[in-house]
Request: fold
Amino acid sequence: HGGMYGLPHAGILANQQLEEFLEPHGYYQAPHTAGLWLHKTRPLSFTLIVDNFGIKYVDKADADHLFNTLKLKYNVSIDWSDKQHYGGLTVKWDYNARTCNISLPGYIEQALACFTHKQPIFHEASPHEHPRKQYGTRVQLTAKPNNTPALDLFNRRHVRKVVGVLLFYARAVDGTLLPALGSISAQQNWPTTKTMKAITKLLNYCACNPDATVRYRASDMILHVESNALYLSESEARLRCAGFFYLSSASNNIHDPNAPAPPINGAIHILCCIMRKVMASASKAKIGALFYNGKDACPLCFTLEEMGHPQPPTPIVTDNITAAGIANNTVKQQQS
Reply:
């Protein structure tokens, strides 16, 4: 009510009306997490994407309370099945095994049909070309400049379409595509024939691995982060930082590197970006990656707290002793 198609303010108007309607019944929006709603007394929360409600409840009576409240103003349909569609994703629950699978069946098939990309003759096992190792050298050199011919306008648009279509799929279920998409998107303004070759390799990989699935297992909902950086892995002496965020059990001793690692779980967030700054060493690259991952972990900790999962200090794992020492103040810097 009160909105029209194409009106930029329609979303905020609908949100304000819903907030005003649900407030007398005890529902309110989380102060820090957009789209997350809570109840003042009931152990119930839900997320709202446009007009789809994803509800987490303990007692079915709490869910019925929300349904009966919404029916006073809106037309509501309910899906109690163990396989649901939410936010474009297919969510499959297994309450006996305590697992949840998220997938996008048919997405890659439709994308390949849209790009008129044929099935490759040989199996493609990697989404991007890996730089060749230089054995026996003490100095790591940057990649040679890309001097291949530039693409025409039609192929430039094709590159941008592929990046846009596959980015949602990579963020949602298949994080293995993110490094390739990051490198290609950095070239999409002025792509060359080398960029088109990378696009073909990426689409071949998607055709050979079409239906990725992320499996989440029940855990203590404690956030863990694996941090890393690839020094001089991108053009113009830049580097790529990465982070794997997952929920698992609490660590016995986060300061002991020999302590048993918590069970791995499906990723709730994957950081994969190219740093704008040029770092002088691999250790500085690792420290920069720690900062990027810590910055992304902050809002996730707020969201988990608001969902009712208190968080201890978040352990962030790095494989560089110097970076870990500087971050924990166990190594003194001669030059900052």
